[in-house]
Amino acid sequence: MTIAAHVTALKHLTNAEVFLSKEDWEYYQACPGETLHLDPDSHPQEFTVDHFYEGSVTLGDITVRTELNPGHTAGCTSFFWDEVNPVNGKTYTLAMHGGVGAFSMADSFYESKTKFLKPWMRDRFLEDCDRMQEIHVDIALPSHPNQIEILDRAGQYTNENMVFLDDTVWSDFLKERAEQVKAVMRK
User: Fold this and answer.
1) Considering the chain, what percentage of its residues have pLDDT values greater than 70?
2) 178-181 contacts: CB < 8 A, separation 24 or more?
3) What domains are there in the chain, each with its CATH number?
4) pLDDT of 69-117, one tens digit each?
5) Neighbouring-strand partners of residue 63
6) What is the C-alpha to C-alpha distance for residues 52 and 56, in angstroms, rounded to an integer?
7) β-sheet with 62-68: strand ranges across
8) 3-state SS class at 182
């Protein structure tokens, strides 16, 4: 099921507001065949956006900082926020990269599979990976479960047993993804 189908269902069931980057909305509008209708068997559904994020978004008592990282799509965004552990009172920074699909940054993809994505986005992605490795992140979360070894620890996390606390994962993850992109660039 595509993100679009999930968004439509979630909004209908919960009245949730939809946030998206302006860049991905433009991509979605310009190239529905590359976004919404990529997999017709997933029952894609049109959706609307309530807010475009840029800078930060406050949701309840959490403020999420956003950083545009084009590459996998035009509007890929990384998200950063702080959480206070109620047991020890320490503040931890969490992060999630919004998109690291190396296949969509290969020259062959740019030449034959997309009308919207361009090689400059891949260059920006690689620059952002280098820059963002310097951001201190205590807990890195994947945008897909297979990107960071996380499922093997599912259900074990508590405020006392912080099994995802590892300030090396973010930097290592970005290095690995940059290397994957470099490996497929000329394919």
Assistant:
1) 87
2) 178/125, 178/126, 178/129, 178/130, 180/100, 180/102, 181/71, 181/100, 181/102, 181/105, 181/122, 181/125, 181/126
3) 1-52 (no CATH), 53-184 (3.60.15.10)
4) 998 889 999 999 999 999 999 999 999 998 888 888 999 999 988 989 9
5) 58
6) 10
7) 56-59, 62-68, 77-84, 91-96, 139-141
8) helix
